[in-house]
Here is the input.
Amino acid sequence: MQSLTLHTHVDADGILRIKVPVDFADMDVEVMLVITPVEAPIAKETAAHEPRGEYGVQVQLPSSLLKLGLSKDDIQERIAEWVVLLLFTEGRISSGKAAHLLDISRLDFLSLLKARGIAYINYSSEELNEEIDAAKNLQEK
Here is the structure.
């Protein structure tokens, strides 16, 4: 199997013409084509902000997932959720940013964390002891 990424242009007539050299000759092949519009370059003043729009990513999953009652849209939503949860647990994004990426409220994101068994606050035992000691000190005053 060969994977190629091409950047090309669709002619004004709406026809996409592709000429690709391949290592196969005189044989039947299966071709999968995913067409994703290319966004205009982001201006320098907005480059520091997140890119606009959506980007296509091809993920190959067993077709047996569809037999479990999951639609392609269900799978896409779950993959997006998984990536956002992973970024959150790695500390790469805040809960507010995660909620924004999933297009839900921050409260709904916190509920999602609970439903998925992910701790919102993940103290080490040393940090937890420091918090307990600080609370005890406040109580004594």
